[in-house]
Amino acid sequence: QRCCCCRRRCHHHAAPPPPPLQLQQQPPPRRRPQSSLRDVLSRVRGTRLRDLQRYLSELDELDDASRFAVFKVGGAVLEGDELAALVDAVRVLTSLDLYPIIVHGSGPQLNDELAATGVEAQFVGGIRVTDEATLTTALRVFSSSNARLTDALESRGVRARPFMSGVFAAELLDESTYGLVGKVTNVHVERLRAAVRLGYVPCVSSVAHTTSGRALNVNADVAARELALKIRPANTLYLNSSGGLRDGNDNIIESINLAEDYDSLLTQPWM
């Protein structure tokens, strides 16, 4: 520009230089897009839309990554396409930095193993009667199922850590009635939390031990409940091959919210 008084280009009238470029640090991309997470969890049996919405709203409030979720996986889910679907869902969850703690059962596998040796499974009140021979077989079957689950996860790029012991402390429930079946007295979660912090999915067997180190059989549903009571996760999912709970008319109830449904369920004659 030319100066209005001297008609020359004057330094003191030159346009001021542009301010230095301010580089603003962009916030890290959000790794938990709700649309992706909702899509994943909606494919995991046992989750209703209203439960998902409440569940998703609670995720960012978690003060401990291990409180994301407890998955109880039935033994029938550890086979074939069911296992593949579970692994795919967990793989997507871990890609979002969400690490469920998985407690698995092995009921069908144990029944098959016992039948192959000519032993008929016995139950009292839904609890498996467990003698020494049954417990020995159960420990072998549980170990095999745990390895199958962790290997399947690892093969798909999910870091998994097996826990065959050290989680559940127990005492005998009623040896004269049930044999070597445990009543959970404590749940040790420190190693599970450490695994999650390191980016591993814990795969937990329901074997418990007494203070003297004696192994006891614990129903996996019960073990998962006790773990959930200790950790207080944002959600607990029970996954089975039937897709839910069957009512008196053999219809499948895909999900139950205990806070809302418990009282009404107890009034049903088929419960």
Strand order of the largest sheet: 5-8-2-1-11
Shape: globular
Task: Name the structural class.
Answer: alpha/beta
Question: Which consecutive residue ranges, at least 5 long each, have pLDDT under 50?
Answer: 20-38
Give the total of beta strands. 13
Radius of gyration: 27 Å
Helix content: 25-40%
Mean pLDDT over all positions: 79
The tally of helices reads 9
Order of H and E elements: HHEHEHEEHEEHEHEEEHEEEH
Summarize the biggest pleated sheet. 5 strands, parallel
Content of β-strand: 15-25%
Distance between the termini: 90 Å
Helices, strands, pairings?
Elements lengths: L33 H9 L6 H11 L9 E5 L6 H16 L5 E4 L2 H10 L6 E2 L2 E2 L3 H24 L4 E4 L4 E5 L2 H4 L3 E6 L2 H8 L3 E5 L2 E2 L5 E2 L3 H12 L3 E5 L5 E2 L5 E2 L4 H9 L5
Parallel strand pairs: 1-2, 1-11, 2-8, 5-8, 6-9
Antiparallel strand pairs: 3-4, 6-7, 9-10, 12-13
Question: Care to describe what's here?
Answer:
With 271 residues, this protein is α/β, with parallel strands linked by helices. Helix content is 38%, strand content 17%. It contains 9 helices and 13 strands. The strands form 4 sheets. The chain has a 5-stranded parallel β-sheet with strand order 5-8-2-1-11, sandwiched between helices. A 4-stranded mixed β-sheet has the order 7-6-9-10. It has a two-stranded antiparallel sheet with strand order 3-4. Helix 4 (107-116) crosses helix 5. 29% of the residues are buried. Residues 20-38 have low confidence and may be disordered.
